[in-house]
Specification:
The chain is of the alpha/beta class. The chain is built from five helices and 13 strands. α1 links the parallel β1 and β2. The chain is globular, with a radius of gyration of 17 Å.
């Protein structure tokens, strides 16, 4: 809990690693080690978990800027550029992260890459309307897009009612900032899983120790 202190508003990340933080935060609150904490969830799933763990909650619109958001990542590149969103919460995660004073990433060492897109696909959230037309556009950017589906074969619907294309880039993403700009200028693309120059700190664990990296 190095980055958390009494009275803070904390953005609550989504995913298995972030869930470990939620459990630790709940235990610290219950033990009286942290007081006056309010959480802002980044997804319906993290809201449900926070409620189960008795973490007091606020909505982002109810608060000033969160003091810190703690979340996981799917890839961490040099400079702490990230790919996030394999859990499907990329839009809300980015809204909360951009409105936080500090974004702290917690991850295992397998998430560290030399360049983005070399291990993980890039989630791209699109509106349902005519979503099929986005596939050709994404291919034109060098991606191999696949519409995310659930176990029954139905398209996965995000908390915001959108679909997700998971985009593989053979050889990785050469220019993430340029790719982000091109995707975000396309009508119907709501958000991407590129989190560029947003994280302040990454805590990266392996079997021996936890390494702190700063941007």
């Amino acid at each position: 809990m190095k980055f958390i202190s009494d009275g803070m508003v904390v953005g609550l990340g989504t995913g298995t690693t972030a869930d470990e933080f939620l459990q630790a935060l709940s235990a610290a609150i219950k033990a009286g080690k942290l007081r006056g904490i309010k959480g802002i969830p980044t997804s319906q799933r993290s809201q449900q978990r926070a409620e189960e763990l008795n973490i007091p909650l606020l909505g982002l619109s109810d608060s000033t800027m969160p003091d810190v958001t703690v979340d996981g990542a799917d890839e961490i590149a040099p400079g702490l550029d990230l790919i996030k969103g394999l859990g499907g919460a990329l839009l809300r995660e980015k809204v909360v992260a951009q409105n936080s004073k500090k974004l702290v990433i917690i991850a295992d060492s397998q998430k560290v890459v030399a360049s983005l897109g070399t291990r993980s696909s890039l989630p791209v959230e699109v509106v349902q309307f005519a979503h099929e037309i986005q596939e050709g556009f994404l291919r034109g950017l060098g991606a191999e897009p696949v519409l995310r589906r659930d176990k029954l074969g139905k398209p996965v619907v995000t908390d915001n009612g959108n679909f997700i294309y998971d985009c593989r880039f053979p050889g990785g993403i050469l220019n993430p900032a340029d790719l982000e700009q091109k995707m975000r200028s396309r009508a119907g693309i709501v958000e991407t899983g590129l989190f560029l120059r947003m994280a302040s700190v990454a805590l990266i664990a392996d079997e021996h120790a936890v390494q702190e990296r700063n941007r």
